[in-house]
Amino acid sequence: xxxxxxxxxxxxxxxxxxxxxxxxxxxxxxxxxxxxxxxxxxxxxxxxxxxxxxxxxxxxxxxxxxxxxxxxxxxxxxxxxxxxxxxxxxxxxxxxxxxxx
Length: 101
Fold this sequence. Notes:
It is globular and about 45 Å long. By secondary structure, it is mainly alpha-helical. The protein has a two-stranded antiparallel ribbon. The longest helix is centred in the C-terminal third of the chain and has 23 residues, at 72-94. The protein has a single domain, classed as EF-hand (Recoverin, domain 1), CATH 1.10.238. It has helices at residues 4-20, 31-41, 43-48, 54-62, 72-94; strands at 28-29, 70-71. Helix 1 packs across helix 2 (31-41). Residues 50-85 form the EF-hand domain.
């Protein structure tokens, strides 16, 4: 039986490929696929954004190699960044120290 972390990693991979397989480039997300993924899988994050161009800015930031596509490694950097931000909020909510030594 997989651990919670193994299950989370598997879900991350499955979600990426569910959206990446739509535009004919199965290993990458186009801007449209990234938008659809974020609207469906990160809806609360998108609702909290005040900037209507947030997805375009995210796409530009994620597309490290400038090919107009977001590969899995580039996508993971979004998930990591959001996870770090959420963990900081978790610490604040729990009254834990948030600073680094």
